[in-house]
Amino acid sequence: MVIVTVQAVVVDSQNKSKKINFALKIIIPIAVVGVIAGIWFFKTYQKPQEITDFSPTVTTNDKSQEKTNFNSSITATDEPQEVANSSSSTTTADESKETASSTSATSATNETQKTANADFSLAASEIDLKKLKLYGLPIIIDFGADECIPCKEMAPVLKKLNAEWQGKVIVKFVDVWKYPNAAVDFPLQVIPSQFFFDGQGNPYVPIDPEGMQMIMYSLKDTQEHVYTAHQGGMTEDQIRAVFKEMGIK
Q1: Residue 245: in which H helix or E strand, if any?
Q2: Cα–Cα nearest to 73, from 175, 163, 152, 149
Q3: What integer pLDDT is reported at residue 81 of this predicted model?
Q4: Is pLDDT above 50 for 167?
Q5: Of 29, 136, 237, 247, whose CA is between 20 and 30 Å from 14?
Q6: CA-CA distance, 118 to 131, in Å (whole number)?
Q7: With contact defined as beta carbons under 8 Å apart, do 204 and 170 qualify?
């Protein structure tokens, strides 16, 4: 009788153990899936991020990262310089004035053209955002590096679009490994990253931020929307889709 009772207890214990193991096999996978789904939802559902003050922390998967001190190679004057050639001894006073005026106007025109060309060129060592917004054109600023692998993949796309959209869109590229100070006013976290502004100088507001993988930054105190950015490389089609929403074809 004792033996039968002990066997019954053992069998009952084994049944309970099987039930527990079976329950764990169901609960643990469900819990893991729930955690993964939560992380995915958190990463993909991008709400406007609040920022107050920031300094760029540039990271990339490229192991060959190199940094150099900022050394500006592009300069532009805000106001055209006036240069007047000295008149010869045989030139009358009136002719001298006309020559000086003509030379000054020509110099001003040339200087303005040089400044405009610098503003519309692709490569830049610094970004004067206020000045770029004065043109009243949509803007894309790509922060990357010449030696960054995903940045290299974007380089021909940016070059093509810059040539095609001259006078329609301002397309800029900054190598932040060479010119880190160029990004101090932007919430730059990884490279490549792209920042978008519409023709009124406002941060681009996508119809589907999640679908376009856009991050919208707003000030913590005022909730003012100040930046719209995309982290990582973008294809030509993705960039065109952004500017198509802004009316650029």
Answers
A1: helix 236-245
A2: 175
A3: 33
A4: yes
A5: 29
A6: 12
A7: no
d(CA 81, CA 109): 10
pLDDT in tens, 14-70: 666 666 676 567 777 777 666 665 555 444 444 455 554 544 444 444 433 333 333
Q: How confident is the model at residue 213 (pLDDT cuts 50, 70, 90)?
A: very high
Neighbour tally for 249: CB within 10 Å: 7
169 closest CA partner among 149, 194, 186: 194
CA dist., res. 238 & res. 196, Å (int): 13
* CA 97/CA 80 separation, integer angstroms: 19
pTM for the model? 0.60
Give me 57's structure tokens: 């922390």
Q: Which residues contact 239 (CB under 8 A, 6 or more apart)?
A: 140, 157, 161, 194
Q: Cβ neighbours of residue 234 under 8 Å, at least 6 residues apart? A: 154, 157, 192, 194
Q: What share of the chain is helix, strand, coil (3-state, %, to 5)?
A: 45, 15, 45
pLDDT the model gives residue 82 = 34
